[in-house]
């Protein structure tokens, strides 16, 4: 991303120690305890990167935090497949709700994806 001039900031609801583990080795700035889907951390990331909101994309693996938060605050969003094999308590709960929502959207033909 850096080689192509694309700025990245990790915006996470997790604690500082956890986020630092994967952001510092690749020298990516981060915001922890973001309280997504609230907008303050998204707006801070945009401000820190000195970008315009319309030039930013929120990429995340959770519909209820990343995509909902990004959409509610006027950002373009991309939902990706989770990379973590295990989730915390609240994430597990959110994923159950997300599966129902995504299933309904798929049945209505609003989204398409392939399951493994």
From TrEMBL:
Database matches in Pfam families: Hydrolase_like (PF13242)
GO molecular function (one): phosphatidylglycerophosphatase activity
Highest rank taxon of the organism: Bacteria
Database matches in Gene3D superfamilies: HAD superfamily/HAD-like
Name this polypeptide is given: YqeG family HAD IIIA-type phosphatase
Organism: Bacillus pumilus (strain SAFR-032)
């Amino acid at each position: 991303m850096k080689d192509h001039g694309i700025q990245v900031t990790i915006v996470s609801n997790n604690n500082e120690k956890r986020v630092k583990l994967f952001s510092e080795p690749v020298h990516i700035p981060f915001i922890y305890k973001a309280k997504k889907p609230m907008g303050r951390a998204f707006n801070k990331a945009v401000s820190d990167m000195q970008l315009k909101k319309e030039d930013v994309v929120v990429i995340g693996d959770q519909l209820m935090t990343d995509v909902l938060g990004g959409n509610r605050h006027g950002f373009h969003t991309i939902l990706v497949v989770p990379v973590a094999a295990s989730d915390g308590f609240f994430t597990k709960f959110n994923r159950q709700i997300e599966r129902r929502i995504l299933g309904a959207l798929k049945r209505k033909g609003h989204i398409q994806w392939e399951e493994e």
